[in-house]
Amino acid sequence: MATHEEIKFLNSPKIGLQRKKYCRFKKSGIKHIDYKDPQFLFKFINDQGKLLPRRLTGNSLKFQRKISQAVKKARHLAILPYVTDLLK
After folding, report:
1. Residue 28: inside a domain, yes or no?
2. What pTM did the predictor assign?
3. Which of 13, 20, 35, 39 has the most crowded CB, counting CB atoms within 10 A?
4. DSSP designation for 44
5. Domain range for residue 69?
6. Which residues in the chain land under pLDDT 50?
7. 52 lies in a domain?
8. Cα torsion for 12, 19, 50, 68, to the nearest 10°?
């Protein structure tokens, strides 16, 4: 019988393991999200201009709502575009 060290894997056995997601706002202590900072808000929208979901960004529900409100307000004031091709 082969031991665990002798077994050759085709893929890495750590592929299924994922790191625990964390909310970057709670970790760094950010309480207010500024809608007038487009460079910061670009981190939370994809290249088509859509908001990234919580499962991808790792934000908590509270801060995901604040991000969405800030992006919507920035779009309304023409700081961010509503729809675009190849934004980044």
Report:
1. yes
2. 0.74
3. 35
4. G
5. 24-76
6. none
7. yes
8. 180
